[in-house]
Amino acid sequence: MLKNRHLLGWLQASPLALVLLAFLLAPIVMIVIVSFWGATEFSIYPAFQFDNYEFLFGSPVTYRVFGATFKYAFITWALTLSIGFTVAYFLAFHVRSQTMQIALFLLCTIPFWTSNIIRMISWIPFLGRNGIANQTLISWGLIDEPLEWLLYSDFSVILAFVHLYTLFMVVPIFNTMMRIDRALLEAARDNGASGLQTLRHVILPLTKPGIMIGTIFVVTLVMGDFITVRFMSGSQRANVGRLISNDIALLQYPSAAATAVVLLATVLIMIAVMLRFVNIRKEL
Amino acid sequence: MRTGYDLELVHLTKRYGDTLAVKDLNHVFAPGSYVCFLGPSGCGKSSTLRMIAGHEEVSEGSILLDGADVSHLAPAQRGTAMMFQNYALFPHLSVRDNVAFSLRMKGVDKPTRHARANELLELVDMTHLADRLPAQLSGGQQQRVALARALVTEPKVLLLDEPLSALDPFLRIRMRTELKKLQRELGITFIHVTHGQDEALALADEIVVMNNAVIEQAGPAREVWARPRTEFVARFIGGHNVLALPQGKVTVRADAVRLSNEGLVGATITAVEYQGASVAVTTRTEAGDEVLALLPEDAFFASPKSPGEAVKLSWDEGRLHRLEG
After folding, report:
1. DSSP state of B30
2. A197 and B CB contact within 8 Å
């Protein structure tokens, strides 16, 4: 009987386990294997050598590109967090009626009705040399000649990231905030806390798990991105994703795989560190 | 020694849009007394409490505490403290930090505020659990922490919003004893909102019965029980039968009703309930009124009755109490 129950348990868990094995674990194992292979200008051959990693860690480009990726991730994180927290706070605590809350929340998701690429491309006529932004600023007399840094720059890359990913911050933070018992805010007021003190001592600590989940979303999305950087920088900026995509375009699969493994390890370490600070288990 | 502070409500009114939640309340609370607001849900008792606490805007009228109008002050500046229905303890703070919260907001340094919090925890007998988180406490323990947190501000009036409703019946009775004891020791006014009449009778020096946004009756517990002013009070406070007699509506206490073979009113027994020390016999009179007779156990079993039997109800004329209106 006991043995039977064990068997049943395994059987029940097996469909999901098989799916994860086939579509998550196997590809990663494959990438790790390929990362040790060798490559020439025209061929790839199975091997077990560290050439790819040696080249990767020996090249100053790698460190620069990783540095740029961290920079994008950090700035995007800081901006999406401050915007996301503010929006979620407004939705959760200032909008009183639930209908209005839902309506405004849906409003936030409208940009998601079109694809990422289209949303990115739509910035180009806006930010371009003769785009709407520059023309407006000139017509207001604020500037005399078009701003060059609006498009194809770090600014435009980060702008697009923030635009694309702020909602990933809003949703988990809003979700956590909605679970905060309103009586706690009254209790804080009853104990003499000002609005700012309530925010700092009650709302912020209780919203930490949501902030952490949003952070994981945004950081992993930005760390793994390559298309936004390519489009919005006009191929003038690089991050790790573009490094990999360039290798793939040149059919240098082993080198691409090695970079991917390093990136994966980096992101996993970052998430592990974050989870040390905040317990998100009760949010799941 | 008693330190007393007057609390007075003057023409206190609360409107939500067109609905009147509290209508023109006028009342003076005796200093240092235990007051229970009693009434069904939606009668305005919670709104009144929340207005006194400052968590609800006053639509009209004012609240005077210790001679000063506090109607428009922030909750923490009024000299009141509130204990919330589900205690509203901060889940991310330890018991000690919860109690010290208001001191922290005032900028009191850590050693001082922890020392003060420890004193309060001592008072409610929770010192040994000071480092726990609220989620690791039982309902009764959480309530003590909530009490300590409310009392750390040294309020003149402590407001309790259905403080016992989240506890199981056994604990409820124990905690109400402790509440009463604490109130007597501190000598401050407790205002306790409840919909349980037994709770109100057990605790209150003064009961304020509310219904439909107004005070139906206010007075010492014994007086409200012995001489309910209106039919609503008589029914809500329990233990009374309301009868429509030719001279008007009267009440007769359930324990004053006797069953006999000759009596004043004919009735049929509809239910018999054994309650230990007494037996509750529900009857329906020929006029259609439901009358409850609470008989001592030995008297009932001397001549047991069962549902469906016809009986006569009787009582001493002096036990009838006339209702107003």
Report:
1. P
2. yes
Q: How many domains does chain A have?
A: 1
Report yes or no on A66 lying in a domain. yes
The torsion of the CA quartet A89, A94, A98, A102, rounded to 10 degrees, works out to -50
Interchain contact, A190 vs B76, CB within 8 Å = yes
Nearby residues of A237 by Cβ (< 8 Å), 6 or more positions away? A68, A153, A154, A157, A229
The reply to whether A201 touches chain B by the CB within 8 Å rule is yes
Q: Among residues A98, A33, A72, A50, which one has the least CA distance to residue A230?
A: A72
Min Cα distance A206 → chain B (Å) is 7
Q: What is the CATH number of the domain that holds A278?
A: 1.10.3720.10
Fold of B7-226: Rossmann fold (3.40.50)
Q: Which residues of B touch A183 (CB under 8 A)?
A: 84-86, 88
Cross-chain residue pair A187–B92, CB shorter than 8 Å: no
d(C-alpha B233, C-alpha B252), whole Å: 13
- Taking contacts as CB-CB distances below 8 angstroms, the residues of chain B near A193 are 76, 101-102, 105
> What pLDDT shows up at residue A207?
93
Q: Hey, which CATH number is domain B242-322, 3.20.20.70, 3.30.450.20, 2.40.50.140, 3.10.25.10?
A: 2.40.50.140
The mean pLDDT values, 10 residues at a time, for chain B of 325 residues are 68 91 91 92 91 92 88 90 92 94 93 93 91 91 93 92 88 90 92 91 93 92 90 90 83 87 83 90 87 89 87 85 80
User: Would you state the torsion angle of the CA atoms of residues A70, A71, A75, A78, taken in this order, to the nearest 10 degrees?
Assistant: 40
Interface contact A186, partner B, CB < 8 A: yes
Which pair of structure tokens corresponds to residue B61? 């009228």
User: CA of A209: which chain B residue's CA is closest?
Assistant: B92
Q: Is A192 close to B91, i.e. CB distance below 8 A?
A: no
Is the distance from CB of B31 to CB of B2 less than 8 angstroms? yes
What residues make up the domain containing A175? Answer: 60-283
pLDDT in tens, B93-104: 999 999 999 999
Residue A281 is predicted with a pLDDT of: 67
Alpha-carbon distance B194 to nearest alpha carbon in chain A (angstroms): 18
- Condensed to tens digits (0 to 9), the pLDDT of residues A53-101 reads 999 999 999 999 999 999 999 999 999 999 999 999 999 999 888 899 9
- pLDDT in the model for residue B2: 38
Q: What percent of chain A has pLDDT over 70?
A: 97
Q: Are strands B157-161 and B80-83 parallel, antiparallel or unpaired?
A: parallel
DSSP string for B143-167: HHHHHHHHHTT--SEEEEESTTTTS
Largest CA distance in chain A: 84
